[in-house]
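Researcher: Structure prediction, please.
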Amino acid sequence: MQSCAERVKTLLRQYHALKMQVSNNLGGEKLRHEVEFIEKSINALPEKDYEVMLAVFIDKKSVRGLAKSLFLSHNGLRKRIEKITKALMTVYESLFC
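Model: Predicted structure follows.
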């Protein structure tokens, strides 16, 4: 069984497939709530963080390419994504674990 932290990463990486399952009523109530959590969490982020998470996890852009287009270092953007993901993990754990 996945840890809560790994579950958040899976939800982010597989968002489109999981959203499709929920849309087709195949995932159950917990998955529906998890997908809603990801959507609401990303939408509630400050604008720059929202754009980063949307680009990387929803639009599937590469971190390296996104960093270049934003004139940021690859490592700096990676650390920013980790920070946002850790915050999501904390909230997820309080709701689902």
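Model: The chain has six helices and no strands.
Researcher: Thanks, that helps.
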